[in-house]
Design goal:
By secondary structure, this protein is mostly helical. The chain is 79% helix and 0% strand. It has two domains: 161 residues, UbiA prenyltransferase (Tetracycline Repressor, domain 2, Orthogonal Bundle), CATH 1.10.357.140; 122 residues, Four Helix Bundle (Hemerythrin (Met), subunit A). It is globular and about 55 Å long.
Length: 288
């Protein structure tokens, strides 16, 4: 039971969310002047992890039929767990997050946070229920949420008029998170095209075909390379420059995997490399 819980909420991804928000707070904000403070950051990270966890749970709930084809070895909803157990877990997560979001909003004297929480939760529900199988919209929605994980840390200071304590690198990293996520989501759709088609999930690739899907992925790869270059030229250290060069090379390699792919293994390798680029890009926060 407990192992299924940790699997369905994707606990390694949640820890990565907390780590990213910690690095953003410590490396890209002037913490001594931030209105968020350490206990506020802890509450914010817990809320964000609960939102993400609920998103994973409800996505598995709606994706049970597709996952029986694409990922039968990792299927929990309707297999290891009953549908009722999945829904109880989902509602428990969002109820807990709602309570903590009220505490944080009162602590910061920012009622805006009371509106952000239901918007985020309902947005992820909408993605799982309707947008996931819509061309472009589903991928774009997930990418926006990932960028939001970054921006939300700076939001209290931005709303308080403390823009001067926010490093420009935060906005570059938010763009990086947005573009790498969008790119990887398209590649995952290329990898999962068979299961999506059998489940009548009309992703861009299912609706328009493999070649247009590859072209779309390559366009996103070029945009990502351009954005990385714009971030790169703002840096000066040799170590940072080297890391950017490695990321550029890795992205070009994924584009080659995608274009010359003969089967799903190529797309899977490309997806793994993109995930590696995400991790390397996050490690930049330690040294920029």
């Amino acid at each position: 039971m407990l192992s299924n819980f940790f699997n369905i909420i994707r606990w390694p991804n949640l820890l990565m969310v907390a780590l990213i928000q910690y690095l953003i707070y410590t490396q890209l904000l002037v913490t001594s002047r931030s209105v968020l403070e350490w206990n506020g950051l802890a509450l914010l990270s817990i809320i964000t992890m609960l939102i993400a966890a609920s998103g994973y749970v409800i996505n598995d709930y709606y994706d049970a039929a597709i996952d029986r084809i694409n990922r039968p070895d990792r299927l929990i909803a309707g297999n290891a767990w009953t549908i009722k157990q999945v829904l109880i877990t989902y509602y428990s997560l969002i109820a807990t997050g709602a309570g903590i979001s009220v505490v944080l909003a009162l602590k910061l004297s920012m009622l805006t946070y009371l509106f952000i929480y239901p918007l985020a939760v309902s947005g992820l529900w909408l993605y799982s229920y309707a947008l996931k199988c819509k061309p472009i919209a589903g991928n774009l929605w997930v990418a926006l949420f990932c960028a939001g994980v970054v921006v939300i840390v700076a939001l209290p200071d931005w709303l308080s008029g403390h823009e001067d304590i926010i490093s420009p690198d935060l906005w570059y990293y938010a763009a990086f998170a947005f573009l790498t996520t969008w790119y990887r989501e398209v590649v995952k759709d290329l990898e999962d095209v068979e299961g999506d088609a059998r489940a009548s999930c009309q992703t861009f690739i299912v609706r328009y075909g493999l070649l247009p899907g590859k072209i779309m992925a390559l366009i996103l790869g070029v945009i990502l390379l351009t954005a990385l270059y714009a971030w790169d030229i703002k840096q000066s250290g040799n170590t940072v420059k080297l890391i950017f060069t490695i990321m550029h090379g890795a992205i070009i390699a994924t584009m080659a995997f995608i274009w010359w792919a003969r089967d799903n293994v190529y797309f899977h390798h490309a997806s793994l490399v993109i995930k590696g680029v995400m991790l390397v890009g996050t490690s930049l926060l330690l040294i920029i």
